[in-house]
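Please review the protein record below. Tell me whether the encoded fold seems credible here:
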Amino acid sequence: MINADYESPEVQRMIQEAQEAMTEELFEEAIRTRANVEPDDLTTLLDLLALGITNGAWRNSCVENWHADGRLSDGDMMRINSHTTDGIRRRLTGWTTEYGITSAEASALAQVDAEDAGVLATRLFRWLTNPRRKLPTGITLGELARTGEDLAEYQDHADRTLGGFVGLMEDKGVRFGLLRTASHGALSCARWWAHPAWLDLVERFVSALDEPTHSHWGPDGQWRTKLGVEPVSVQDRHTLRATLLAAPWKLDGDAAEWITNAGIGYMSPTITPPSAPTSN
C-alpha cells in the first residue's frame, strides 16, 4: 500500500487517477500473465492473496529496516516470510470456509461484504502483531522488535495496510480488493514460496547445485566456488527439495543462509504467459 502522508497533493492526485483506472479485468490479466493461472480458481487466488498480504503488511514495513540493520539475515527473512505467508494462508482458508466461499468467481464472492472482510483483517492483524508470535528462527516478534516503540511502529504499519485492504473493498467491492491484492502477490512475489512459479524455481535451483558450470554460477562457476562446503541438510537433495516446496521455514539456520547466499532468489522462474486462444 502507498502511504499518502508522504506524497504531495499532485502526486496524490496522480495516484488517485491511476487507481480509478484499475479494473477487475486488469488484475485478472495480471494474474494470468504473471502467474500463469486462472484467477477464478479459489486455491490459486488464496495463495496469491497470502503473498500480497504478507508482502504489504509484513515484509514492506520496518521489518525490512530490521533486516538491513542486521537483526535478520537473508536466510532468516526467507524462513520468516514463508512462515508468515503460510500463517496468513491458513487464516484465509478458515475465513472462506466459514463464509461458504467455494470459488473466486463473482457469484461466489457476492455473498460477502466489506464488514465480512473486516473480520478477516482483524484476525490477520491480531496474529501478525502479537508480540508472542513465535517466529521460525526461535524468537518471538516482541524479541525481534526489541523495544515497545519498534513493536508499535510495526503494529501501526500493519493496521494501516490492512485498513487500506478493507477500505478498498468498501469503495470498490470485495472481489476487486481481493484481486488487487492477489495481483500484487503475483507481480511482486514471483520468487517466493507459494507462488505458482516456486515449483519451477526450486527444481532448477536444486538441479543447478550439481552443475558447477550452470550459468547461474557465473563465469567459470565462481559464485559456486565461493560458497564453500554445503551444510549437511543441503547435501541431501531429496529432503532439501521437499522442504523448499512444502515448508521452507523448517530449514535449519545454516541451510537457509547457505541457500540464500547461493542466490535462490536470483534464479528467475521460467514460467511463460499462457498462449493466446486460437480462433475456430
